[in-house]
Amino acid sequence: MNQLQLPSGISVQKSGNTYVILRNGEAEIGGIIVSGTPMGDTQLQPYVKDPQNNNQHIVASVTQQMSDALLEFVAQKPNDQRYDAFPPIVSDGTEVFENKVFPCSKCNKVTARLIFSWETVSIEDMENIAKNFELEASVSDYPVWILGAPDCNDDDIAKHLTLQIAPNKGKAYWEYPDDMNKRLIELDETHC
Ligand SMILES: [Zn+2]
User: Fold this and answer.
1) SS3 label, residue 34
2) How far, in Å, from the CA of 190 to the mean position of ligand 1?
3) How far is the CA of 108 from the centre of ligand 1 (A)?
4) CA 149 to ligand 1 centroid distance, Å
5) Choice between 145 and 3, residue whose per-residue pLDDT is larger
6) What are the tens digits of pLDDT across the range 4-16?
7) How would you classify the pairing of strands 110-116 and 144-150?
8) Strand partners for 63
């Protein structure tokens, strides 16, 4: 946990299965509950204490750093001990989104993240989904895309709704999965 980049006055204390985030060593502003899933994945469930506006950004930043550290740790394991979906993002505590992170093949740091929302069929709905991840996207220093529904059922020719939300927010458009794959490969090759 020593690698966390914390704002001044902020500290993290482990208490059971929870990492409690403190301001000035005493005021609890939120925390992250760590739990395992039956699949063997580790899940991070953040919570934020009031006032939400002041505390949200710090909790999101710490959660992201822990999630990335965990990913880098998992990426060092042999292939058969890794899991593709890692860990599901729970937005607003209600909806779970499958997502996939891509660790650099040389340094294991995260190069990109895809969030899957296969049921989302319109540009307007993509924008609404993106709102759920504004906080997370604001602290991400690698690119993040949301992928929505395909425009037809034929995988060979289908384009998917695609919306980049980090490091800068783009506009939703339709794209072939192949083009996304090429981009992910290039991100890996040019990472370090
Ligand atoms: Zn790298």
Assistant:
1) strand
2) 8
3) 6
4) 30
5) 145
6) 788 889 999 888 8
7) parallel
8) none
